[in-house]
């Protein structure tokens, strides 16, 4: 049995999310199906992060165990051929130790949230970013973001469906940068609560629009109450960027 | 009657190209339909460049004449609402002089061609770039490109359907840059022949793959013969970037 680390990219639009679902397509089911078609083996694919419906991945780390002896080249090319036409691609494959685990060995997760700050509807980037028409004040957003960095109880920014044991997380990075009409919000932590990045992004948008003062981010955090949330950003603009391992 | 300059962005995938066609959707027909729905006026939309099926536009200049008196804001928002769900967006509108013409006043056209130089199939960028698996030698491509810059007879790089009076054009810029896995080819000229950018790109890919020497670009140019063309690149990676006016 060989444990394989796969680095996957996907377009989240057609999927119910990473996790296998009875009621619709998932990235996990696509990967497990392709692995089965290639090897005849029923595998369980484990990912560093379980992304929601519509959320994209630029480089998600996943692992599967295979008894079949294949080369790295053959596994990558074979899975990619069998994953079609699903918009999932295997960027890289690597043999890892048997005790390496895509989820439990992961010590850092990086997300990117793309906002298209423009009046016109999206065409080429439809489904790939959150369009916000009015001009966003990036300086205010950056100030608002600063209140969230560090170790906090993120109950306000947590989905009611979150299964994490504790709402206390350490947010290492929450940056806001403008590149022309695009605003990039980058979030980095050992782990996140369910909907945390989208919830933080939604509130930062409220700050950028001037509906919230930057300090309202601190107040929302301190409320430790989901009802204090300003807005949950849509999945379209969210990208899982990288899983970090020791 | 007011002449309006419209700056349009579109995803070329669902269209037969800019020009109105009997046998399928076109960007021109979408724009003319939206203008009719908004004003009741039958207009003809003129574009700086008539792009092919599948070719995208980041900022195409177009003009239409309208008798109806509207504000810039109302025209842009109205057209954008009526263009949905077609992936065409009006980025900006501007009143121009009656003798200003999107096509005939244009003194420069800029195109971008995106190559995704990677083994894995495209997911998020599917239809938005030309994927080439083997590593491309950008230095060799740049050298090959240098032979095409200047005033030449571009017959080799011209579609048999090209309606231009002369195959002689002046190519001002043909640059090749790598950004990680992406290769960006930028072409700039007063005007281009039909399929010229895709034909030049296809041959540059041959050079990048090592199937052609850089000097083979010069030989292909000097042959002045369509049969000397190495390869015509697919439309997916081509973007009309900008139309330049005095």
TrEMBL record, chains A, B:
Domain spans labelled Pseudouridine synthase I TruA alpha/beta: 11-104, 145-246
Protein family: Belongs to the tRNA pseudouridine synthase TruA family.
InterPro entries, sorted: PsdUridine_synth_cat_dom_sf, PsdUridine_synth_TruA, PsdUridine_synth_TruA_a/b_dom, PsdUridine_synth_TruA_C, TruA/RsuA/RluB/E/F_N
Protein name: tRNA pseudouridine synthase A
Positions with a binding annotation for substrate: 111
Keywords: Isomerase, tRNA processing
NCBIfam families: hisT_truA
Enzyme class per UniProt: isomerase
Subunit structure of this chain's protein: Homodimer.
GO molecular function, one term: tRNA pseudouridine(38-40) synthase activity
Function: Formation of pseudouridine at positions 38, 39 and 40 in the anticodon stem and loop of transfer RNAs.
Gene: truA
């Amino acid at each position: 049995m060989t444990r394989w680390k796969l680095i996957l990219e996907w377009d989240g639009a057609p999927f119910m999310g990473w996790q296998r679902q009875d009621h619709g397509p998932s990235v996990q089911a696509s990967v497990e199906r392709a692995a089965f078609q290639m090897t005849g083996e029923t595998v369980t694919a484990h990912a560093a992060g379980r992304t929601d419906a519509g959320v994209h991945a630029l480089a998600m780390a996943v692992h599967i165990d295979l008894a079949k002896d294949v080369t790295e080249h053959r596994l990558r090319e074979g899975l990619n051929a069998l994953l079609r036409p699903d918009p999932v691609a295997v960027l890289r494959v690597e043999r890892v130790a048997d005790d390496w685990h895509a989820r439990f060995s992961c010590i850092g997760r990086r997300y990117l949230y793309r906002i298209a700050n423009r009046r016109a509807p999206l065409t080429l980037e439809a489904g790939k970013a959150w369009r916000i028409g009015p001009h966003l004040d990036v300086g205010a957003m950056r100030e608002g973001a600063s209140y969230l960095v560090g170790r906090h109880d993120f109950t306000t920014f947590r989905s009611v469906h979150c299964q994490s044991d504790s709402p206390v997380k350490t947010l290492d990075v929450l940056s806001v940068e403008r590149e022309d009409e695009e605003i990039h919000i980058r979030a980095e932590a050992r782990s996140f609560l369910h909907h945390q990045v989208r919830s933080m992004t939604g509130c930062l948008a409220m700050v950028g629009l001037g509906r919230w003062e930057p300090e309202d981010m601190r107040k929302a955090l301190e409320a430790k109450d989901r009802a204090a949330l300003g807005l949950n950003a849509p999945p379209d603009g969210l990208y899982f960027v990288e899983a970090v391992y020791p």
